């Protein structure tokens, strides 16, 4: 098998159900998810040590799910079952809730960074936000699996929560935005 096909030499690419220009909104959306996946892979290389095995395993699962998201976005008009399901969103929500409990209380906005591992996760988070914007633009023009948008929205929150936990497990403080007022408060019990 050859790696190159030459079928894209005129600026077109194949989707499930047709061909489009390489700068089509669908291609931009799933291409940006591919960028996210690359950043996840890089973060995983930094999270192979013992205190992060749970996170490493979750990131490996997420890499496969990102491929599922991209696959669903590449379907045009075909009657193929989508791969991204609501349970995938629920899993992310459960993990976010657990990580929020593990991390120190959050009061102010924080800057990306702290440790190299957390910085890598923040990169994945910001590219995920860009992917989300691309998906929203696509949704305005064409029908997609809307659960992909929900998944990507939760995924950016997941990366934020995990980055904070990684810093906490390493004993590295999050870098607070200096000019931030206290913007996050624990809900007061009545």
From TrEMBL:
Q: What is its EC number?
A: 2.5.1.17
Which first-to-last residue range defines the signal peptide? Answer: none
Put simply, this protein is called: Corrinoid adenosyltransferase
| Subunit record text | Homotrimer.
Q: InterPro entries attached here? A: CblAdoTrfase-like, CblAdoTrfase-like_sf, PduO-typ
Instruction: List the keywords (alphabetical).
Output: ATP-binding, Cobalamin biosynthesis, Nucleotide-binding, Transferase
Q: Which family does it belong to?
A: Belongs to the Cob(I)alamin adenosyltransferase family.
- Source organism: Thermolongibacillus altinsuensis
The record's GO molecular-function terms, alphabetically, read:
ATP binding; corrinoid adenosyltransferase activity
The domain of life for this entry's organism is Bacteria
Name its GO BP terms in alphabetical order: cobalamin biosynthetic process
* Catalyzed reactions per annotation: 2 cob(II)alamin + reduced [electron-transfer flavoprotein] + 2 ATP = 2 adenosylcob(III)alamin + 2 triphosphate + oxidized [electron-transfer flavoprotein] + 3 H(+); 2 cob(II)yrinate a,c diamide + reduced [electron-transfer flavoprotein] + 2 ATP = 2 adenosylcob(III)yrinate a,c-diamide + 2 triphosphate + oxidized [electron-transfer flavoprotein] + 3 H(+)
Is-annotated flag, keyword Zinc-finger? no
UniProt-listed Pfam families: Cob_adeno_trans
């Amino acid at each position: 098998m050859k790696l190159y096909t030459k079928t894209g030499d005129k600026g077109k690419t194949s989707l499930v159900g047709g061909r489009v220009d390489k700068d089509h909104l669908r291609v931009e959306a799933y291409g940006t998810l591919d960028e996210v996946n690359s950043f996840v892979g890089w973060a995983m290389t930094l999270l192979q040590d013992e205190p992060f095995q749970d996170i490493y395993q979750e990131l490996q699962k997420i890499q496969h799910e990102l491929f599922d998201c991209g696959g669903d976005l590449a379907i045009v008009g075909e009657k193929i079952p989508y791969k991204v399901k609501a349970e995938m969103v629920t899993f992310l929500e459960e993990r976010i809730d657990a990580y929020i409990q593990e991390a120190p209380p959050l009061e102010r906005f924080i800057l990306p960074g702290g440790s190299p591992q957390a910085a890598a996760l923040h990169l994945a988070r910001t590219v995920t936000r860009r992917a989300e914007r691309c998906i929203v633009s696509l949704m305005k023009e064409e029908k997609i699996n809307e659960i992909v948008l929900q998944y990507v929205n939760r995924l950016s929150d997941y990366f934020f929560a995990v980055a904070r936990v990684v810093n906490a497990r390493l004993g590295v403080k999050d870098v607070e935005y200096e000019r931030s007022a206290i913007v996050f408060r624990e809900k007061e019990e009545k």
